Amino acid sequence: MTKTKVAVVTGAAxxxxxxxxxxxxxxxxxxxxVDREQVDLSQSSEVNKYFAELGEVDILVxxxxxxVGQTHHPLEEITDADWHAILNANIQTTFNCTRAVITQxxxxxxxxxxxxxxxxxxxxxxxxIQAYSTAKAAQIAFTRQMAFEVGQFGITVxxxxxxxxxxxxxxxxxxxxxxAEGQAKLISGIATRRLGKASDIANGVxxxxxxxxxxxxxxxxxxxxxxxxx
Length: 230
Known about the structure:
The chain has helices spanning 15-26, 44-54, 80-108, 130-150, 169-177, 179-188, 198-209, and strands at 6-10, 30-34, 59-62, 111-116, 155-162, 220-223. It is α/β, with parallel strands linked by helices. The chain has one domain (6-214): 3-Layer(aba) Sandwich (Rossmann fold), CATH 3.40.50. Strand 3 (59-62), helix 3 and strand 4 form a beta-alpha-beta unit. The radius of gyration is 17 Å and the shape is globular. The model has no long low-confidence stretch (mean pLDDT 95). Pfam families: adh_short_C2. InterPro entries: NAD(P)-bd_dom_sf, SDR, SDR_fam. Belongs to the short-chain dehydrogenases/reductases (SDR) family.
């Protein structure tokens, strides 16, 4: 049986992050959910202060991210601010939070880190947002590099690449924008013929964070109903 651990889930205010926090609580862990309304996770000073006050962390789930309200525009129209806003929300937050916990995880020779990337990081973004697919691919590469670096300390680092999950206002708006024909086309490209649920992703996180998953690291698991098969 998995022993009670202390977990931090970023981006926990809604959707996938909220479902991850719930499933870890159900597993008996003490869970701290943190979102941008509480801490600007793209700022290292705020992140370091938050984790210093929190104390020891056993499990870190980097779920903060998203498209920060942006929609597709041709590359020549993308400003520096647009580009950096999405990179900050996705890969910078992952870097800051991982760096904040890694020393104490090394000291106790145990830790579980799970990064929530996207199918956009393995292929292309359905939104067409260049910075989003770039940031999500960077999360996958960061996962592999960190797994190689810290595996010797009993720390595993894994990643999940969700497919289309209807879980928050942004994804609902995206789904509605496709219209009936676009929705049918998207569903036909999913082997299970349904959209994802936040709980589908949370189940994957639960697996990666278990004691029994100690020999699984550096992996990127596509949880997408088989969409990546096509």
